Amino acid sequence: MQINVAQLLKEPVGAKRNYDIDELAGENGQNRLKGRVELIRTSRGILAAGKFTTDIKGSCSRCLGEANKQISFIMEEEFLPVIDITSGIHLHPPPEEFTIADNHILDLREAIRQYIIMAIPTRLLCRPDCPGICPVCGQGLASGNCGHVSQPCDDRWNKLVQSEKENKI
Ligand SMILES: [Zn+2]
Ligand SMILES: [Zn+2]
């Protein structure tokens, strides 16, 4: 995800390069990222446009078991050079912009990390219909029924189970 763009920067606006990406990315590099990015020379710098897929690992928000989810996202960011490739003059792009380092390496990692964070769902589930945990013994009901919920002993218990279900929606 670190691409030398010295050549592309010397080309006219609209010039393009395509790169296949298959690397570890994200927070602490724990996400296997696959996709394809197109680098396009713009008047100010280089536009990086790509579509990526990665697997998110986390805990299920209902039963706290392991949850995996594949997410896809589209990235589109313009990277501005900090040095003019032909004159060698130092440029001063605004600090909020992504930049191309003075060795002409365009580093996609920070942008990708931010896109992955934005694409992570706030609630991960181990499976779409995860039944959660038993309110009595705490066992994850996805891995088997402990016998508490399916055999409620009286009506008050039924109501408790019912309101528990409603609270989860
Ligand atoms: Zn679960
Ligand atoms: Zn139980």
Task: Tell me what you see in this structure.
The chain has 169 residues and is α+β, with helices and mostly antiparallel strands. The protein has 2 domains: 2-119, no CATH class; 131-169, no CATH class. It has 3 helices and 7 strands. It has a 5-stranded mixed sheet with strand order 2-3-4-5-6. Strands 1-7 form a two-stranded antiparallel ribbon. A hairpin with a 6-residue loop joins strand 4 (46-59) and strand 5. The radius of gyration is 24 Å and the shape is rod-shaped. One zinc ion binds next to loops.
Chart the SSEs and their pairings.
Blueprint: E1 2-4, H1 6-9, E2 16-25, E3 31-41, E4 46-59, E5 66-81, E6 98-100, E7 105-107, H2 109-119, H3 155-168
Parallel strand pairs: 5-6
Antiparallel strand pairs: 1-7, 2-3, 3-4, 4-5
The protein binds zinc ion (2 copies).
One zinc ion binds at residues 134, 136-137, 139, 146, 148.
* Largest β-sheet summary: 5 strands, mixed
Overall SS class: alpha+beta
Rough shape?
rod-shaped
Ends distance = 40 Å
Helical content band: 10-25%
Q: If helices are DSSP runs of H or I spanning 4 or more residues, what is the number of helices?
A: 3
